[in-house]
Automatic annotation (TrEMBL):
Enzyme Commission designation: 2.4.1.1
Role this protein plays: Phosphorylase is an important allosteric enzyme in carbohydrate metabolism. Enzymes from different sources differ in their regulatory mechanisms and in their natural substrates. However, all known phosphorylases share catalytic and structural properties. Allosteric enzyme that catalyzes the rate-limiting step in glycogen catabolism, the phosphorolytic cleavage of glycogen to produce glucose-1-phosphate, and plays a central role in maintaining cellular and organismal glucose homeostasis.
Protein name, as recorded: Alpha-1,4 glucan phosphorylase
Modified residues (N6-(pyridoxal phosphate)lysine): 650
Source organism (scientific name): Bulleidia extructa W1219
One matching Pfam family: Phosphorylase
CDD domains documented for this protein: GT35_Glycogen_Phosphorylase (cd04300)
Gene: glgP
Reaction equations catalysed: [(1->4)-alpha-D-glucosyl](n) + phosphate = [(1->4)-alpha-D-glucosyl](n-1) + alpha-D-glucose 1-phosphate
Keywords: Carbohydrate metabolism, Glycosyltransferase, Pyridoxal phosphate, Transferase
EC main group: transferase
Length: 798
């Protein structure tokens, strides 16, 4: 490992020769970036050592939103200074290299980013772990705004090779699909042989996961689908039928071509089930092969050496697949296999939205995975047998918890039944699982249930993303918090220290200017860094209620025009986030934001006071510029619907004040910072639940009773905003004709009041920056290091 600038320069020049095949001077910036990434990757590789005796966690996730790696790894390895100064000597700028790096979009949002934060914490805390995922050829689409609408472009992140990955053809494993199961009896026991219709090859690519201080380097192993044989039909080729010659290869590769957007209904998506089975089966085979290499046939210690975690239900077939391998390949019996699988597998639920709880039609599942289906059917049969038929209400309980019901395979029920632990991702969410969504399971097996409140990598989203604040902290409370985020508490001593508060304000200003420059570059819009930055960034979804925020801005605009005495501190409203391609409502809300931005930003009467910005293509990399610049963090989902949220934590840590409902982890933020340091509004989860139940809410009444609401809704239908890209009937109808399922209008007034009170506080600098520092000081709890320690101690027992 190079230590000095001089050594670095020598090794870097050498890397250019070896990796690119050219002298340093002849390399393009991109080639130099590539060589540097390879060099850092190999340095990290030297730190990787197998600790054989330890238990290892395999984290199965359909999504890993890892973000850019170079800057993060230089920080983690303590090489930033050496490399940046070395490059400067060579006439190069490290920042240029950061810009070139691709940000692989291998996830939709919070769930995928959580998996990446967990990989960071696992390595930084020194635990042996492997992430198991899919190498999608195209990440989530890139978002562009054209004429005020979202346009999707493919994200071809592998176009020019990805320097952090290493292909391991020697570790490829076959994966079967379709066909039939042959049963034979040898006079003693039954044997099952799966004769597949199709076998493909799953090929792993490894990306190093480098912990802070280089303590531990783990791997993220992502799988790609290839044909078993080269899959090239020579006969067809010789006939000149080139399309057919390549067809098989193309069909197989299609399995790992695209990432499914999370908002689309999954019914009938056979390709999605293929994806899920492919990476799960490959991951399980890999685990079994490694176990056998180390421990031979000592299956009795399997669950002492291996923990398997399923991130949501997408890898739910982990347990039955492990049983299949143990029984059909290793010759173990049912009971033993069941014991091993259920002692190894655990499950996190991430959502209560019914459309996201996966179900597969039985016929489809059985046709695609006949042997797995046999096993699942037997798990289900035994589960049914276990019911005491003399207990009142057992039929209802069974109906709600069975795996096979109504012609469908219920993946959440499978996950709960085969797992030793089941957890939700914030206190409120876990309570909702226990009392509503998985109520019957909770009655039957309460000991399985536990909460693990989400966390974020405070190193990436704070130490790395907010260098000015980091520096200030290092001068004030030292560096200990980078290892021990709970030490951020020490900041509490400085909450009354005016000169410290001024420095925090100055650091925020620096971050706001950085964001303002980015906004200018991406949208052409000039924003005022002295205005309050009020930010809502996340996927677009009706329950997240970006619409409520938009109605707020429309109302403010109306009042500013109507009343010359109406005064508020200038505010810039900033939005970012993607809407799933097929989710028309969400796309319309983006269109509405762009439309009001266009009107308001061009209206001289108001635009010294308010401006509206939509930043295109929200991703991990621009998120790192956005969070540190925020002053108000909008977390305004309908209470009970956001399982946790993690953006809320990133904002809070960077000193923004949350304006939010009592939903997801906002509840815990409130408990930690105290009600004086957060602005909570709106209905509570149980109130919403009751109103839904009673059907007592009528949106029409509010429309008629509240003039401000009536005005903004009418403006959706007249020509106030429709010039740019058309009308907004769908939004209007969702609020009035469909009776506002997400309680937007019901929460409107309390939201407006909360917003105005919060903005009012900004006038008093001392109060504001004290609140801000208090939020940062309390945010250590939301480091994913804390979350991971809880998983390790209470679930995985590493
Ligand atoms: C999510 C939840 O919606 C989100 O609230 C949570 O923070 C995240 C991580 O636990 O998981 N579930 C989900 O399907 N997505 C999420 O972001 C996409």
């Amino acid at each position: 490992m190079f230590k000095t600038k001089k050594e670095f320069k020598k090794e870097f020049e050498n890397a250019c020769l070896v990796v690119v095949g050219k002298d340093f001077e002849d390399c393009s910036t991109e080639e130099k970036y590539f060589a540097l990434a390879k060099l850092i990757s190999s340095q990290a590789g030297e730190l990787h050592e197998q600790k054989i005796a330890h238990k290892k966690i395999y984290y199965f996730s359909m999504e890993f939103l890892i973000g850019k790696l170079l800057e993060n790894y230089l920080m983690n390895l303590g090489l930033t200074k050496t490399v940046s100064e070395g490059l400067k000597d060579m006439g190069e700028s490290l920042e240029d290299y950061f810009d070139i790096e691709k940000d692989p979009g291998l996830g939709n949002g919070g769930l995928g980013r959580l998996a990446a934060c967990f990989m960071d914490s696992l390595a930084s805390l020194g635990y042996e772990a492997q992430g198991v995922g899919i190498r999608y050829r195209f990440g989530l689409f890139k978002q562009r705004i054209e004429d005020g609408r979202q346009v999707e472009d493919p994200d071809n992140w592998l176009e020019k090779d990805y320097p952090w990955e290493v292909k391991h053809l020697e570790a490829a494993v076959p994966v079967k699909f379709g066909g039939r199961v042959e049963k034979s009896y040898d006079g003693n026991e039954m044997h099952y042989q799966w004769i597949p219709e199709e076998t493909i090859l799953a090929v792993p690519y490894d990306i190093p996961m480098v912990g802070y201080d280089g303590k531990q380097v783990n791997t993220l192993r992502i799988w790609s689908a290839k044909p078993m044989e080269e899959g090239f039909d020579m006969d067809a080729f010789n006939r000149g039928d080139y399309a057919h010659a390549n067809k098989h290869r193309a069909d197989v590769q299609a399995i790992t071509d695209i990432l499914y957007p999370n908002d689309q209904s999954l019914s009938g998506r056979i390709l999605r089930l293929k994806q899920e089975y492919m990476f799960t089966a490959a991951g399980i085979m890999d685990i079994v092969n490694n176990f056998k290499k180390q421990y031979g046939n000592h299956w009795e210690i399997f669950s002492e050496k291996v923990a398997i975690h399923t991130n949501d239900t997408h890898p739910a077939v982990c347990a039955p697949e492990l049983m299949r391998v143990l029984m059909d390949q290793e010759g173990l019996g049912w009971d033993e296999s069941w014991k091993i699988a259920s002692a190894s597998v655990s499950y996190t639920n991430h959502t209560i939205l019914p459309e996201a709880l996966e179900k597969w039609p039985i016929d489809m599942f059985r046709n695609l995975l006949p042997r797995l289906y046999d096993i699942i059917e037997e798990i289900d049969r035994r589960y049914r047998d276990s019911f005491h038929k003399n207990v009142d209400g057992w039929q209802e309980q069974l109906k709600n918890t069975a795996i096979l019901w109504d012609g469908q395979v219920h993946m959440a029920n499978l996950s709960v039944i085969v797992s030793h632990h089941v957890n939700g991702v914030a206190d409120l969410h876990t309570e909702i699982l226990k009392n509503i969504v998985l109520k019957d399971f909770y009655t039957l097996v309460p000991e399985k249930f536990n909460n693990k409140t989400n966390g974020i990598s405070h190193r990436r989203f704070f130490a790395q993303a907010n260098p000015s604040y980091r520096k200030l902290l290092e001068e004030t409370i030292g560096k200990g918090w980078i290892h021990h985020p709970e030490e951020l508490e020490n900041l509490k001593k400085y909450e009354e220290n005016v000169s410290f508060l001024e420095k925090v304000e100055a650091s925020k200003k620096e971050n706001k200017i950085r964001l303002a420059n980015y906004i200018k570059k991406m949208t052409g819009i000039e924003v005022n860094p002295n205005s309050i930055f009020d930010i809502q960034v996340k996927r677009f979804h009706a329950y997240k209620r970006q619409l409520l925020n938009v109605l707020k801005i429309m109302d403010l605009y109306n009042r500013l025009l109507a009343d010359p005495n109406f005064h508020i501190h200038p505010v810039t409203f900033i939005f970012a986030g993607k809407a799933a391609q097929g989710y028309t409502f969400a796309k319309d809300v983006i269109r509405l934001i762009c439309a009001i931005a266009d009107v308001i930003n061009h209206d001289d009467r108001v635009n010294r006071m308010i401006k509206v910005v939509f930043i295109p293509n929200f991703s991990v990399s621009n998120a790192q510029i956005i969070y540190p610049a925020a002053e108000i963090s909008e977390q305004i989902s309908t209470a009970g619907m956001e399982a946790s949220g993690t953006g809320n934590m990133k904002f809070m840590m960077n000193g923004a004040i949350t304006l939010g409902t009592l939903d997801g982890a906002n509840v815990e933020i409130t408990q930690l910072v105290g009600s004086d340091n957060i602005k909570i509004f709106g209905l509570k989860a149980h109130e919403i639940e009751t109103m839904r139940h009673q059907g007592s809410y009528l949106a029409w009444t509010l429309y008629h009773e509240n003039q401000r609401i009536k005005k903004v809704l009418d403006q959706l239908m007249d020509d106030t905003y429709s010039h740019l890209s058309g009308g907004f009937d769908l939004i209007y109808d969702s609020l009035l004709r469909d009776n506002d399922s997400f309680f937007v209008l019901k929460d409107f007034e309390s939201y407006m009041n909360a917003f105005e009170e919060l903005v009012g506080l900004y006038e008093d600098k001392k109060t504001w920056w004290k609140m801000s520092v208090h939020n940062t000081a309390c945010s250590g709890y939301f480091s994913s290091d804390r979350t991971i320690e809880e998983y390790v101690q209470e679930i995985w027992k590493l």
